[in-house]
What does this fold into?
Amino acid sequence: MEVLEQRDGEVVVLSLHGRLDGGTSPGLQEKLFALIDQGEKRLVVDGSDLAYVSSSGLRALLLAAKRLAEVSGQLVLCSLNEHIRKVFDITGLASVFDIRGSRHDAITTLQEEK
Amino acid sequence: MRAQDRLVVRNELAELERLSGFLSAFWEKHRLPPDLELDINLAVEEVFCNVVRHGYQDAAAHEIVVCLLLEDGLLSVSVEDDGVAFNPLEAPAPVLDGPLDERPVGGLGVHLIRSVADDVKYRREGNRNHLVLKKRMESNR
It folds into this structure.
């Protein structure tokens, strides 16, 4: 899985390309934690090109969200396909993550947080 | 109509790519409903990852055998390994609600397996674990 990092003001957007599974999740978790350790507090994970997520991927995102909450930061997810959205619903994680329909909405949400 | 296939993988997470390729090829060959492929891929990954992470107490390479059987519209997927006796179905019930700080980071894999499959059974035979999940190949669309 490829992770592309872009910045929009104070918001860092990570675009995921491929599959977030047991093999690729550790890499994403490492990337997210590194950003948080560097002081980033507004993160978007863009799933427009993400085909699939397993519990390993959920774990990485959940750990990052918890770490961010400790430093009063926030993680927003966006553009999740139907299958991925279903996985979030089945596991009850749709209610703890802020999931937006577009990258623009996700970024705007974080920019409005003061 | 009856079709089957078999794949032997090593107990390494890097094998997930071969595993999904194997499932994908079977799906295409037998023209199974596309919307069910990711579901089964998810369930099989969760089973496989449990075996890799919890099934062994040594650093040795082990073989995990994945078999697919398609018969009269019912797909059976069996995952067989020689790891320690481990029944993932006995895992504690997952936490599916509550605020972020009260959500444990584990325990969701088995829940996903049960949610996706129509039936899941585990048995231990000799020194081998056998997990079989079944799903009717009827599209959700």
Observations:
- The longest strand of chain A covers residues 42-53.
- The longest helix of chain A spans residues 55-70.
- The beta strands of chain A are 2-8, 11-20, 42-53, 74-78, 98-100.
- Chain A touches chain B at residues 19, 21-23, 51-52, 54-56, 58-59, 62-63, 65-66, 69, 83, 87, 90-93, 95-96 (CB under 8 Å).
